[in-house]
């Protein structure tokens, strides 16, 4: 399967010597994409050579691709507190297997990351793991993520958090979010909000619509997300008058209406960014009914063409996710937002769970999809369908999320194929396939609706900061 010989080096070791010729290089930092070669020596990207057409016959984007290491703004590493679902070590191994060299961990651990001591613990676990993948963290917005009082944002900023989020829940109090936007802005850091009005989603199971109605699942309205997006944007407009550096990032937006609100706010010059997930880009509510076709292949009515759409048993709890898988039109809106730049980044919302939290009836199952290792395959399916160019997808996995994080510094990535910099890149075979079997996953969370499915796009090598993070077996 692998187009490269394995490195036969230890994970974490400095890559002494690597040459990849006749590859397709994608470098969003310089805006270049085309055939070329790279050379890595002692961890440094010594040479990036772009070939002209005459030298590159037979090399195209369907072969071996080299791109900057991916950056994921939204992962749940579960440690401390829920190590049955994931540990920092298993999460970073999953990241490397997915081509990610930087991940930003959400603070909804137990205890919550609302104190620099919890960040130190995360850093300690990352160092002990031996993985060279960067583990950044969002600090909590509110103490204990309880939504009542601001956490010690200044102390968390001094300790090096990437910004602040109460992800898992929205900040219900407008007054608290307003203060957080102002305070974080003064510290030069973004606020990341999970847009959901919990009073509209209590007991909700599936996107409010035809599929939920037929299946008898309680509806989760788009308005629960859109009303919070609208409120957040109004608060941001208020805050930027006094604190021009305030920044808002809306994560895992899933509806056409939310994305349209962000589109209009950006057009008005508001300092807002957002991300969409691979599952909202490529899957739809039809999967709850047992359909297993990509969102762009669906009609929105999995029963319309009878048994040809229904291939799996319905109510698979691996599909229970927050926000829920949406309508076909919402998935199309996510892709449109990616194409026109409304969505700045693709973030996985990697949410591993132990089987005990998923092997229950649908309405009781924990929300979340284990997504780090399947993200590339899912977005490449979209590229294969001719819906989004490869270069745009790579941009949304590298320079897009890096811009959300802000000016590069020692712990913030600056993705790019830059000669003389430590090699931080992913090498993948664009056309090879792999099967998403539990044994193929490094994450402890096997809660993915893609189990058993063949995905196109096999990660061969991941190098983070000049060190080996992942090397495909022979
Ligand atoms: Zn969330």
What is shown here, in short?
The protein has 474 residues and is of the alpha/beta class.
Any chance you could write out the topology, listing elements then pairs?
Elements: E1 17-27, E2 32-41, E3 44-50, E4 64-68, E5 70-75, H1 88-98, E6 100-105, H2 116-129, E7 134-139, H3 153-159, E8 163-165, H4 174-186, E9 191-194, H5 198-201, E10 206-207, H6 210-215, E11 219-220, H7 222-240, E12 248-251, H8 256-267, E13 272-276, H9 278-282, H10 328-340, E14 345-346, H11 375-384, H12 390-397, H13 399-405, E15 425-435, E16 454-464, E17 467-471
Parallel strand pairs: 1-4, 5-6, 6-7, 7-8, 8-9, 9-12, 10-11, 12-13, 13-14
Antiparallel strand pairs: 1-2, 2-3, 4-15, 15-16, 16-17
This protein binds zinc ion.
Zinc ion binds next to loops.
Written account of the structure:
It is a single chain. This protein has helices at 88-98, 116-129, 153-159, 174-186, 198-201, 210-215, 222-240, 256-267, 278-282, 328-340, 375-384, 390-397, 399-405, and strands at 17-27, 32-41, 44-50, 64-68, 70-75, 100-105, 134-139, 163-165, 191-194, 206-207, 219-220, 248-251, 272-276, 345-346, 425-435, 454-464, 467-471. The longest helix has 19 residues, at 222-240. The protein has 474 residues and is an alpha/beta fold. It has a single domain, classed as Alpha-Beta Barrel (TIM Barrel), CATH 3.20.20. Strand 8 (163-165), helix 4 (174-186) and strand 9 form a beta-alpha-beta unit. The strands form 3 sheets. It has an 8-stranded parallel beta sheet. Helix content is 27%, strand content 21%. The protein is globular, with a radius of gyration of 21 Å. The model has no long low-confidence stretch (mean pLDDT 94). It binds zinc ion. Residues 167-168, 194, 251-252 line the site of zinc ion. Zinc ion is lined by residues 167-168, 194, 251-252.
């Amino acid at each position: 399967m692998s187009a490269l010989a394995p490195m036969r080096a230890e994970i974490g070791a400095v890559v002494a010597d690597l040459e990849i010729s006749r590859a397709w290089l994608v470098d969003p930092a310089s805006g270049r994409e085309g055939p070329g070669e790279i050379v890595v020596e002692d961890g440094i990207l010594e040479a990036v050579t772009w070939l002209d057409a005459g030298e590159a016959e037979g090399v195209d984007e369907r072969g071996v691709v080299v791109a900057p290491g991916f950056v994921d703004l939204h992962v749940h590493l579960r440690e401390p507190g829920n190590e049955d679902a994931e540990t920092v070590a298993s999460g970073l191994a999953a990241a490397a297997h997915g081509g990610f060299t930087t991940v930003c961990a959400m603070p909804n651990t137990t205890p919550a990351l609302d104190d620099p001591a919890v960040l130190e613990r995360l850093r300690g676990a990352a160092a002990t793991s031996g993985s060279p993948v960067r583990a950044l963290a969002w600090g909590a917005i509110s103490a204990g993520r309880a939504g009542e009082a601001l956490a010690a944002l200044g102390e968390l900023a001094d300790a090096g958090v990437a910004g602040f989020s109460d992800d898992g829940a929205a900040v219900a109090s407008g007054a608290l979010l307003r203060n957080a936007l102002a305070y974080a802005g003064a510290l030069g850091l973004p606020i990341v909000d999970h847009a959901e009005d919990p009073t509209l989603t209590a007991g909700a199971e599936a996107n409010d619509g035809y599929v939920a109605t037929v299946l008898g699942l309680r509806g989760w309205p788009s308005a629960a997300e859109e009303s919070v997006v609208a409120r957040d944007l109004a608060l941001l407009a208020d805050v930027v008058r006094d604190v021009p550096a305030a920044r808002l990032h809306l994560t895992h937006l899933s509806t056409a209406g939310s994305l349209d609100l962000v589109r209009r706010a950006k057009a008005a010059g508001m300092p807002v960014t957002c991300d969409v997930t691979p599952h909202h880009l490529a899957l739809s509510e039809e999967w709850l009914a047992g359909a297993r076709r990509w969102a762009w292949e669906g009609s929105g009515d999995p029963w319309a063409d009878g048994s040809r759409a229904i291939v799996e048993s319905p109510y698979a709890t691996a599909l229970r996710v927050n926000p829920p898988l949406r309508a076909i039109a919402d998935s199309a809106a996510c892709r449109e937002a990616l194409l026109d730049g409304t969505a700045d980044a693709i973030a996985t919302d990697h949410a591993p769970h132990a089987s005990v939290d998923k092997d229950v009836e649908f309405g009781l199952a924990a929300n979340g999809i284990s997504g780090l290792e399947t993200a590339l395959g899912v977005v490449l399916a979209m590229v294969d369908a001719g819906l989004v160019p490869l270069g745009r997808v790579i941009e949304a996995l590298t320079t897009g999320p890096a811009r959300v994080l802000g000016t590069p510094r020692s712990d913030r990535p600056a993705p790019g194929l830059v000669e003389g910099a430590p090699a931080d890149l992913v090498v993948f075979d664009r056309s090879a396939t792999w099967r998403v079997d539990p044994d193929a996953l490094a994450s402890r969370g096997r809660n993915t609706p893609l189990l058993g499915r063949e995905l196109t796009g096999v990660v061969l090598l991941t190098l983070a900061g000049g060190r080996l993070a992942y090397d495909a077996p022979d």
